Amino acid sequence: MNVRFFRLLYYRIPNILKLLLLVLIAMPFFGYLIYLIEPETFPSLTDGIWWALVTGATVGYGDYVPATLIGRLLAAFLILSGGGLIAFYIASLSTTVIKREKKSQEGKLAFHGTDHYVFIGFNERTRQLVHLIIEYYYNKKIVIIDRTLNNLSYTKLPVHYIKGNATEDAILHMANIKAASCVFIAADNQKSDYESDTHTILTTIAVRGNNPDIPIVSEILSKKQIDNAARAGATTIIRSNDFMSSLFFHELDPEVQSTPFEDIYHLLTQQKFVHRAVPSSLTGRTYTEAVTSFLEKEILVIGIIREKDYILHPETTYILEEKDTLICLSKRQH
């Protein structure tokens, strides 16, 4: 029973640790032998271990040198065996590091951090989103799950990459989904809208099943699938086609003397939307009074949400109610 346990433990130990353990046993052993053979030259056991270590590593400082024939034979044996052992250990260590780096690039290593973002699906939007997060929240850890990339080097994009299908629990566990702070599921532009939305909804269900409380941002291309995405557990649904259609319409308006796309892009990169409940001091007051009050805090009120209705740029005399929500813009902090 005990022999079986130790054999099982031995085979479970990584080879690099086995070699290190062998080195840690061999060097004190040779040091103890030289200490017994030549106590005058090696007055303490630590001196013998030090000599064994530098001799086995073929460094040979020369501070301790065996004087007897037996001591020199022991030194020769140590050089032939211990030197090879240490060299093999260093080579194995290098190989392990290289293999780990290769596995990391190929998306085969699990992520063990916490409070991280998980991005599912990799495309140019995801790449730009990563750069924005690094710019404004440089300490935030990011995990990308994608099944199409062959590899993703950390030097090209400083994220932890996991290759696989995010609808599978095993892949989500590799991303440590239970400890993540938010999940973003990107649409697959290489598929039809229906296929892309179906995969997004299935992924949303899988994520929600593994973490009932995590915020999930899902990108849906078809209006028909918005309700299904909400039922699947999406916290926020990004309707990218609706947004782009509205933006194109704005660009085509002959009366518009502006650059809507550039304006919105810089607005979203430099500012962030914030929803604030109406303070009791502003209940029954006008929209203008709310704007003036919040401007003192460097927050710009641009509209109101009342019973799920969005009222942007209301009249200056618009009266605020207790259950209203203020739509605000606040500066991003680097």
Could you characterize what this model shows?
- Helices cover 48% and strands 15% of the residues.
- With 334 residues, the chain is an alpha/beta fold.
- It has three domains: 2-105, Helix Hairpins (Orthogonal Bundle), CATH 1.10.287; 117-243, Rossmann fold, CATH 3.40.50.720; 271-331, Regulator of K+ conductance, C-terminal domain (Alpha-Beta Plaits), CATH 3.30.70.
- A six-stranded parallel sheet has the order 3-2-1-4-5-6. Strands 7-10-8-9 form a four-stranded antiparallel sheet.
- β4, α7 (193-210) and β5 form a beta-alpha-beta unit.
- The protein is elongated and about 105 Å long.
Helix content: 40-55%
Note the gap between the termini. Answer: 60 Å
Radius of gyration based on Cα positions:
32 Å
Low-confidence stretches: none
Assembly annotation = single chain
**The CATH class of the largest domain:** Alpha Beta
Quickly give the structural class. alpha/beta
Integer tally of domains: 3
Report the CATH superfamily of the largest domain. NAD(P)-binding Rossmann-like Domain
Write down how many β-strands occur, each being a DSSP E stretch of 2 or more residues.
10
Query: For the report, how would you describe the main beta sheet?
Result: 6 strands, parallel
Transmembrane segments: 16-37, 73-91
Domain RCK N-terminal: 114-239
Pfam family, one: Ion_trans_2
Keywords: Ion channel, Ion transport, Membrane, Transmembrane, Transmembrane helix, Transport
